[in-house]
Automatic annotation (TrEMBL):
Xref: Gene3D superfamilies: alpha/beta hydrolase (3.40.50.1820)
Pfam families registered for this protein in UniProt: COesterase (PF00135)
Organism: Diploscapter pachys
Source organism, top-level taxon: Eukaryota
InterPro entries cross-referenced by the UniProt entry: AB_hydrolase_fold (IPR029058), CarbesteraseB (IPR002018)
Start and end residues of each Carboxylesterase type B domain: 15-490
Name recorded for this polypeptide: Carboxylesterase type B domain-containing protein
Length: 491
């Protein structure tokens, strides 16, 4: 069920009309009748619908329109499979479509103290590059918790799954279409945000999980890095092992073969055949408990180094750029949400051993792997509690967090410090509400601050499940959103 504290329901006054490069838009005034009113413009196209002949093509600027376009509701979600833990009412209320390249602008109605306008925050959602949309992050909660702190906020959508990351390795299909979509949205912001009281020269992009990976990657590509000034990467960044998919070409062919479409050596004919298929053929289920043979979530699609969006290896791109001020971090127990094996001492012990062996195999000689692994396990599990299920569950959560993003994020921070370029700030988000997990909470070994907790309180939204905000929840939202908007405004 939609929470009215997150997504506005009912009648609201119309917003002011704004003239964009492509036509006039009119939204809703979601915060009204008070000193600081906020307008919301939802479902603004930033590219032509990527359908039919434009499927598997680079995004193109949208068509202009005559008259006033009503932008008073979220656009359809990008094509994706049903997430099994999602509220069925939400799934039914917000259907999916291949025509989904739209963004939302939430903007203060009062005059900025700066002649250039308000600083801008652009949010890119996560979801393993397979699921999610801008809708779940809300509208009225963003107006209340972000815009009323003197910031214009933009949330965007992009192509997901195989539609966003189809790869042929040649000119039959551009790689990294999802990243090109994000870049097109940032170009739209650069060209139009001044009309919404935003400063086009002070844009911060923020993403969580796969979105965190995306914003860090966008800071490196010469096609996107000059379109913003700062970024915030939550629970994911380009240093994380899962950020780049070396074998996307082979993976795409395999996934289409599973759907009865065989690659026969001609990429252009292959893509031509794919354009004739219904959009839902390209859906990929998000990983669930049954898809985790090693106890960890693994992404099945994602960006690759293609020679175009990324003309060089990431290390070279990072070295040739000065870098940007940014924040990176994660929840205190990221591995908790991604750890869903059978909760037994033996299964946890096996997975912990596998995790640690994988982390150290390239750092110690083969003859020392077992001893080093066992020494590390002793640091994670008190020898007096080696038969305790709780102790092994916590060790597994810690080691899964290490594999998922802890170690790579620490590496990212240390490398940025050594380069001595722009500042990099690090956070660990440790707050949670035990009621915020919904059905997922029944499968977790214990409750803690885990994946998605940080973004929940950044906007005051409800990501994993609907739950009642307490007074303390709102205080944490006020504190965390202030920290983020201060970075957007002042750094």
């Amino acid at each position: 069920m939609t929470n009215p504290d997150v997504i506005a329901e009912g009648d609201f006054p119309s917003s002011r009309q704004v003239k964009t490069k492509y036509g006039v838009v009119e939204g809703r005034r979601l915060i009204h009748g008070v000193e600081k009113e906020v307008d919301a413009f939802q479902g603004i196209p930033f590219a032509k619908p990527p359908v039919e002949k434009l499927r598997f093509e680079l995004p193109q600027p949208p068509e202009s329109w005559e008259g006033v376009k009503a932008t008073k509701a979220f656009a359809l979600r990008s094509q994706q499979d049903i997430f099994p833990y999602e509220d069925p009412e939400f799934t039914k209320k917000y259907p999916v479509s291949e025509d989904s390249l739209y963004l939302n602008v939430f903007t203060p109605c009062w005059k900025s103290e700066s002649e250039k306008g308000f600083p801008v925050l652009v949010y890119i959602h996560g979801g393993a590059f397979l699921i999610d949309s801008s809708i779940k992050y809300g509208d009225i909660c963003i107006c209340r918790n972000i815009c009323r702190k003197d910031v214009v906020c933009v949330t965007i959508q992009y192509r997901l799954g195989l539609l966003g990351f189809m790869a042929t390795g040649d000119d039959a299909c551009p790689d990294n279409l999802a990243l090109w979509d994000m870049t097109e949205a940032l170009k739209w912001v650069k060209e139009n945000i001044a009309q919404f009281n935003g400063d086009p020269d002070n844009v911060t992009i923020m993403g969580q999980s796969a979105g965190g990976v995306a914003v860090d990657l966008l800071s490196l590509s010469p096609h996107s890095r000059d379109l913003f000034t700062k970024y915030v990467a939550m629970a994911g960044n380009a240093t994380c092992e899962f950020s780049i998919h070396e074998y996307m070409i082979e993976e795409c062919r395999l996934k289409m073969e599973e759907r009865g479409i065989i690659y026969k050596g001609d990429s252009k004919e292959f893509i031509k055949e794919l354009r004739r298929l219904p959009a839902d053929v390209f859906n990929i289920p998000a990983p669930t408990k049954l898809d985790r043979p090693n106890g960890r979530v693994q992404l099945s699609v994602g960006p690759r180094i293609d020679g175009k969006f990324f003309p060089k290896p990431l290390a070279e791109l990072r070295n040739e750029t000065k870098g940007k001020p940014h924040i990176v971090g994660m929840a205190g127990e990221e591995g908790l949400l991604t750890s869903m094996p059978p909760w037994t001492v033996e299964s946890c012990r096996t997975l912990v051993q596998s995790n640690i062996a994988g982390l150290i195999k390239e750092k110690v000689s083969p003859t020392k792997v077992r001893k080093t692994r066992n020494d590390i396990i002793k640091m994670l599990v008190d020898i007096k509690k080696e038969e305790s299920l709780d102790a092994w569950c916590r060790a597994l959560v810690q080691s899964n967090g290490d594999v998922f993003c802890y170690i790579d994020t620490q590496k990212h921070v240390l490398e940025r410090a050594e380069m001595g370029h722009e500042p990099c700030y690090f956070y660990s988000f440790d707050y949670y509400n035990p009621d915020m997990f919904g059905p997922l909470g029944e499968e977790m070994a214990y409750k803690g601050s885990t994946h998605c907790c940080d973004i929940t309180y950044a906007f005051g939204t409800r990501i994993l499940a609907d739950f009642k905000f307490t007074e303390l929840d709102q205080k944490i939202t006020d504190l965390w959103s202030t920290l983020i908007t201060n970075f957007v405004k002042y750094r």
